[in-house]
Amino acid sequence: ERRLSMERPPELGQVHNIPAKTRQERKGEVHKEDLEKMRLRQRRECYYHHEEVSLVQPPDSLGYIPESDRFITDSAAVEKTERDRQIARKEHIFHNKRLGRAATEEQRWKSMEAEYEEDAALQLQIRQEGAFCRSNKTSMPYDPVTLKYGEGRDGDCLRYSDEALKYRSALRADNLQRRTNSGFNPITGEETARVPIPEKPSPPSFMQLHAGM
Fold first, then answer.
1. Which of 163, 173, 169 is nearest to 200 (CA)?
2. Considering Cα of 93, then 98, then 103, then 104, what sign does the dihedral take?
């Protein structure tokens, strides 16, 4: 009986089927990083799961594009389009520069014409009125040829102003002479000639009347 029990195959209990590991899984067990990623993918419940990131977008995503459209086959057309775009951009810049310079030149000519018309109108008005032909007076009531003052109040005022200026300058010179060297030359020791002081000028009669009022 014991011999018979040894010849019979044992009874089969609960069978656990273990799937064979793929080559990637076997390599992952060798590399630590791949092993960690695999364990993260196999985690359950609410733990973080590692997701594989691929450079190819899925067909239902917005970034998906067919392989046939990923590369441009007509490079000559692309080059020509880029060259035409650059030429059009340069032409647009040149056109704007031409318009700006034309506007500036037109404004310059308008200002020159306005200035010429204003000058012509002024010359015509001067010819009609004859303002420069009425008299040949100088800017001051003084004749540089005869070295005489003009007649009238303007000439009297100028004469009094000049004489008062000479009188004040003589007073200053005499004051400096008396205060600096006491009337003696410090080098030769001789007495220096005194600065002549003119008489104090009297203002014209009409200026005295205004001062008295």
1. 163
2. positive
- The angle formed by the CA atoms of residues 198, 202 and 205, to the nearest 5 degrees, is 160
- pLDDT tens digits for range 140-176: 887 888 888 888 888 888 889 999 999 999 999 888 8
Q: For 75-127, what is each residue's pLDDT tens digit?
A: 788 889 999 999 999 999 999 999 999 999 999 999 999 999 999 998 888 78
The pTM of the full predicted model, rounded to 2 decimals, is: 0.35
What's the rounded Cα separation, in Å, for the pair 49 and 38?
10
Distances (CA, A) of 163 to 94, 158, 182, 204: 72, 9, 27, 12
**Alpha helices of the chain — where are they, by DSSP H?**
2-7, 23-28, 32-41, 75-129, 153-180, 205-212
Residue 32, token pair as written in the block: 């630590």
Structure-token pair, residue 14: 């609960």
- Backbone phi, then psi, for 138, in 5-degree steps? -85, 175
